[in-house]
Structures are given as C-alpha cells and as structure tokens.
Amino acid sequence: MRRLALFLPFFLLLVTACSSPAKPKPDPTGASDHTIRVGALDRTYRVFRPVIPAGRKAALVVVLHGAAGTGRQAAKSYEWDDAATAGGFVAVFPDGVRRTWNASPDCCGVAARDQVDDVAFIKALVAEVSRSIPIDPARVFATGISNGALLTFRLACETTLFAAIAPVAGTMINPCVAPAPLSVLQIHGKDDQTIPYGGGPGRRSTSGDGRLPVKIDGPAVEALNATWRKVDDCPKPAVTTTGAITTTLARCPDGRAVELIAVDGAGHQWPGSDGPGPIASRLLRLDPPYMALNATDTIWRFFNGV
C-alpha cells in the first residue's frame, strides 16, 4: 500500500500530461515549393509566407518571371522575400512552361506555340493558395517583367482577380475587351530596345510565325497608360520629374490609381536588381543593372496604397 501511495502522484502527473491538449503548432513560414494539376499539366510554383498575426488576412502578390526565368529566380533577383517579410504579405512565384508564358497567340515561345492556358493556371494557383493561407481577396495583386508583364496585362483583361497590377518592361499585345477597372502601375525604361518605350516591334520580335513565336508589337507606353486611365475613368494626370524619373499619376474613382514611372537611362530590366550576373547577362543580351529606382519597393508601396 505504501508503495502504491508513493507512486500515485507520479502516475497522476503522467495521466494529466498525456490528457492535456497539445499546443497548436504555429503556421509554417518561409519558402515552400508546390505543384498543382491544371488541365493536362502539372504546374509548379513557389510560395513565400511571412508571419501572419492570428485573425488577420494577408495580401497576396503574384510575381511572374520573364522569358528564360523561373519563379525561384524572380524571387531571388528582385528580392521579393525580403519585401514580403517587411510588408507582411504573401508572395507567390509561378513557373512558366519551358520558362515562357502564353501572353497571346504570338508570344511567347513554347507556351504560346502550345497554347498553354496560363490564365487558368494563375486562377487555380490563387484559389489554392487562398485555401491554405488566410488571404484578403480584395488585396490580390500581380506583377511581372517582360513576358511576365505581357501576361500580367492579359490577366487584367481576362479576369477580375486583381485589385492592381504592376507590369515592368511590358506592353499589351492581347485583345482586351471591356476590362474591369483596377489600379495600374507601369514601370518602363526609356532606353528599352526589347519592348520599346515608343511602341512597335523590339529587337527580339519575330513575325510570330514558326516554331517558337515571339511577336511583340504593342502601343507606346504612354498611350497604353492613357488606355487604362480611360478604363478607370480617371482625371487628367499630374506629371512630375525628379532626376531621371518621370512619374505620371492619376487618382481615379473608388480609390484606384493609374501611374507610369518612366526611367531615363534604363533598358529592358527590373530597376534595382543586380540581374543574374555578368556571364548570364552577356549570354542573354541583358541591359546592365539600373539602381536609381528600386522597382520591388516601389511596386509594394503602390499595391499597399490602393
């Protein structure tokens, strides 16, 4: 009996410990890789999740790499993980098929040739991320560079997913009939020879025919910005110039904005990025880094303010 009394407190302590509810594990943060089936294709994407306070829904930024890029490369080159950590938003980095996006029947590469449904992919991706992470559906945004910027414009024309878009070094080459109003920020180098600031075909544009079509023949950047001001029923914009940067900004109804940041001396690039390195830059015929503007920080401030 004495032995039983001696061990009884330890037994009760063990039972209490086993029966106590386990503390919930914190939601995972940081980068993770995912695959989703869309149509007949397995599509891949990367998600960066910051710490999200309990009970709060986060903004979501979809970042579309350029031709020959990847989601992982876009996250690293443009430092979106750091921006997401500081801003408390979720960033997602999809991968194009063979590193290209189907922005129109004429562009670009394998994705256009095979008519990959990238619009369906991005819609499915946003829905999937929103199921696993608390996302504010009114604060879903898209940005991209070059081929990714072309797809960004297409998404704005063919979906109502996004509150705002921010194409960098891009134009609109897809049909765009009665798009829904949304905020638009364009960032474009005036020395861009791939997607010229003044419009028309660039140095890499082909006829759009053949095995891997790359036909880019869009409107002048300023004219395209005016088109979106008309979509948003905006007043006349204010124009300011500070050094190499000219900003055209219209404050529009319902809190929307349409803005163009034109950068003297910048080419076909993401301003503020060091790029992939000198060897890759030479092989891909990329313009040298331009550091007078940080496009990533500028884009997030725009998204966060609309």
TrEMBL record:
Keywords: Signal. PROSITE patterns: PROKAR_LIPOPROTEIN (PS51257). Residues 1-22 form the signal peptide. Residues 193-212 are annotated as: Disordered. This is Polyhydroxybutyrate depolymerase. It comes from Paractinoplanes tereljensis. The gene is lpqP.
